[in-house]
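Lab intake sheet, docking and co-folding queue.

SAMPLE TYPE: protein with bound small molecule
LIGAND NAME: LGD76KDA
LIGAND FORMAT: SMILES
REQUESTED OUTPUT: full 3D complex as structure tokens
PRIORITY: normal
SUBMITTED BY: R.K., bench team

The fields below were copied directly from the construct record.
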Amino acid sequence: MMRSKFLSLLIRAPSVCRSMSTATKLTTIDVNDKTGIATLTLNRSPINALNVELLQDLNESIKEIEDNKSRGLILTSSNDKVFSAGLDLNEMYRPDKDRARLLWIKLQDVWLALYSCDLPTAAAINGYAPAGGCLLATVCEYRVMLPKCRIGFNETQLGIVPPIFCMFNFLNVLPRRVAERSLSQGQMFTTEQALQIGLVDDVVSSKGEALDKCTKFIDTFAKVNPLARSLAKQQFRAADLQRFQTERAKDLESFLAFINHPQMQEGLGIYLNSLKKKQQLNAV
Ligand SMILES: CCCCCCCCCCCC/C=C/CC(=O)SCCNC(=O)CCNC(=O)[C@H](O)C(C)(C)COP(=O)(O)OP(=O)(O)OC[C@H]1O[C@@H](n2cnc3c(N)ncnc32)[C@H](O)[C@@H]1OP(=O)(O)O
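RESULT FIELD (auto-filled):
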């Protein structure tokens, strides 16, 4: 009797989360001891702009989660309005050459780590996800998003050619025609539009609900052999990964040439200024 009561208490005990990372990082990892699923949170204030350090921490966290044999990875943000603002434009404006090189290499590494991740991956998009933010969301296998946000690759709107990994992500998620049009037009979709075209799988009303949906998605693999699941995923992605490896060095040089171009620098300066001006206007 005592034993069964004890057992039932154990069964009903709330799930416990373990933190795996130190507080000095720009990412945090919480592993739910009950589900074995790791939540990886972007935590660079104010808008999770992807700089060298955040990308470095993301890479380390993904590896940590894989090494610790978690059952799945959920990517989210600590900011309640912005999932990620994409690449930190300050890293590209009047750049330090070595840092700019490192920035792109680290971005490529993050994409590669998530695209080829052995675990099921899901994104709880709890805010705006432009450009690099959209890259992080669409590299995952499943997405849920909060209402009244926007997501998309706005690169061409900024005069930037979207790198090939943006194309791979979109082609995995959208019909080819829609992927091509949205990338070449630099379209940003509202949450509702994103749901309509299949860019996100579901819309939820809170971050908690987003994390629950992501957990449920990862749970759909509970009865599938992990090795078979992982190899099936690799099979689908192998050709993209091969093409990426062939083009990665050229992609890096294109990025560096592009951001060092005087016209690009001028455009970036104007764009950064317009973002700051927006804040000044809001304050009036
Ligand atoms: C064969 C191979 C070919 C390969 C070719 C390769 C070619 C390579 C080309 C190069 C590719 C470069 C790729 C770039 C991808 C990117 O990710 S670029 C980044 C794009 N991001 C954006 O455009 C986002 C812009 N920001 C916003 O829309 C908004 O800020 C927001 C919706 C994210 C958040 O809005 P809100 O909460 O209202 O905050 P704000 O007041 O707007 O911003 C606060 C603060 O942050 C600054 N800021 C915003 N975004 C960025 C950013 N991405 N980087 C740096 N800083 C940013 C903003 O100015 C405010 O600053 P102050 O507080 O005023 O100083």
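REVIEWER NOTE: The pocket of LGD76KDA is lined by residues 46-47, 49, 81-82, 85-90, 128, 130-132, 154-155, 160-161, 163-164, 247, 250-251, 254-255, 258, 275-276, 278-279 (CB under 6 Å).
SIGN-OFF: pending second check by T.M.
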